[in-house]
Structure formats: structure tokens, C-alpha cells
Amino acid sequence: MPLPKPPGHDARSPTAPQRPMQVSFPTHSPNKPRKKKPRRCCCSCCLWICVLLLVLILFLCLVGFAVFVYFRPTPPKFKVETLKFKQFSVESRSQQLYLTSNVQLFVEALNKNDRFGFSYDHLSALVFANDVSLGGASFPRFLQPRKNTTVMNFPASVMGSLVDNAEGKEMESKYKAKQLDLNVELRGNLRIIFRRWSSGKLEFQLWCEGVNQHKISMGMEPQCKVKLFGWPFFISA
User: Fold this and answer.
1) CA pair distance 179, 216, nearest whole angstrom
2) What is the DSSP letter of 114?
3) Among 46, 68, 125, 227, which residue's CB has the most CB atoms within a 10 Å radius?
């Protein structure tokens, strides 16, 4: 006779023991920080900056062209109008030659512009015969209005200046034959004046070679070079 089963006994067939739940963990390494791609806003900023620069350059070019058309600027022109010798002599003392000279140099400044004038200052002129200085002079500051011609007088002189014997005799011979050619150098500063506006100082230089009193009186103008705004210009002055 089978033994009685204890109370609470389940008559169903026994089940296999349950295995404990296994938790799987990722085997790959943790994610590395991703590289940030260049922002598109930087490219956009560079593009807009380039566009603005191009627009600004174009605007300045248009303004410059409009100003040029409105003013039609013409640089001042200079001309050696007259060259007069009041005195010229070469004296011999103690087997040496001494030069005495007095030259009246007149230089014409012409302003052809009809919208602005010029202001000149620190004007000075030097006169040479070959490499021998015949003196220099200065001219006071003056304002030249538009469409104006002004003549500047530079009285250059030397008294008893020692010269080389060969050069002294050559100059005296050419002076008597009216063939003595002089070189003239004129320096100064100018400003451009438009109503109440004035530019900064601009240095200019005039250099003339072969200036001859007799040739000028015959209407033969010497060849001159003007250096203005840092650029040389060849003119008949």
C-alpha cells in the first residue's frame, strides 16, 4: 500500500530546474568622441567678407572715376620765363679765379584747373653753370587761385666765389659769346585747395637744363623735368 503523499504535494509532473537568467554585456569598446566637422557658418562668413570687400573696391573705383570726371585735374605747369644776368665777371687774383654773378630768374607757374587752386610754400631755386653754383634764392608762400598764372622771381647771386681756373675761363668765354647754358633746380611744396578743403603737403621738383638767356629771348624754351607726386614728367617749360 503506497504511503500517503504529504499535503501540498503537486501531482503534476516535476519540471526541470530553471537556470538563472544571464545578462549579456557589450563586448565592444566604449564609443570614441566623434570629430566635429567644420562649421558651415565659417565658410559663409568668409564668403560674405569677400563679397563686401569686392563691393567696397568697386564703390571706391566708381567714386574715384566720378571725382576725376567732375574735377578733371591737371597738374601745375612751370616755365622758365626769363633769365637775366645783371652781373657776371671772373677776376684773377693771386693766380686764382674768383666768380661774381647776379642772375635774375623768373619762373612762371600756371594753374589750368577751373575748380581748385594751389598753395605753395618752401620754394627755393638754385642756378648752376656746369657744376659751379651761381647762387640760390627763395620765394615766399603764396596761394594760386584757379585759372591763374603767377610769376616767381629768384635773384641768385655769388660774390667772389673761388672757381677752378679752367672752368672760370670757359664760363667767361661762353658768357661773352652768349653761349653760357645754365641749369635750374626749383623745389617746394604745394597743397591742393578746394573751397575750405586742403590736401596734405606734396613735394615737387623742377629741373631744367640748357637754360640760355639768348635762346629764351629767341623763343627757344629749354627742356625741363618736373617730379610731382613721386612721378617724373617731361615738359617744355
Assistant:
1) 12
2) S
3) 125
